[in-house]
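Thread: Newbie trying to understand structure tokens

Hi all, I'm a second-year student working on a class project, and my supervisor (Dr. K.) asked me to get a predicted structure for one chain before our next meeting. I've only ever worked with sequences, so writing a 3D structure as a token string is new to me. If someone could post the tokens and maybe explain what I'm looking at, I'd be very grateful. Here's the chain:
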Amino acid sequence: MKRWDERVSVIGVVLGVLVVVAALRMPLGAWSSPGPAFLPVGAGVLLVVLCLAYGINAWRNTEPEYSRKPSPWVIEHWRRAVSVMFALLVYALLLDTLGYLVATFLLMVVLLRVLEPPGWPMTFLAATLITAVTYIVFGKWLMVQFPRGIFGV
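---
Reply by user tm_fold:
Sure, no problem. This is what the structure looks like when written as tokens:
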């Protein structure tokens, strides 16, 4: 596992540098008036910093348990990744029909059960809280308009 983490961090650093280099072909702008490259450059730099920290942590970790962890390429990891991608695709397709609240609640239930399944009561509680908090922050506080769906909510 250690070797995989080190490799992934190198790939992340390379991708971050490529994002920064590509973005710098556009005007960067200033803090008061950001240009089109401002956000991609910031994201690329953040990716480089986080991947460097991840790689250094993997390189410095000498615990025997860490080295014996299974490869990320085992089939169980792929099943979870495909399940999450499928859930996000279904969410995107049903968002307009079901509306933000219903579709997001269902997505959270599926994701919580697929990734690290807690018990059903905790799943429903967490899904309800996540949906409510995101709705309050984005829908009420930031006034983002969400799809209402067939239930009108």
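A couple of things are worth pointing out once you decode it. The radius of gyration is 20 Å. The chain has two domains: 2-67, 75-141. Feel free to ask follow-ups in this thread.
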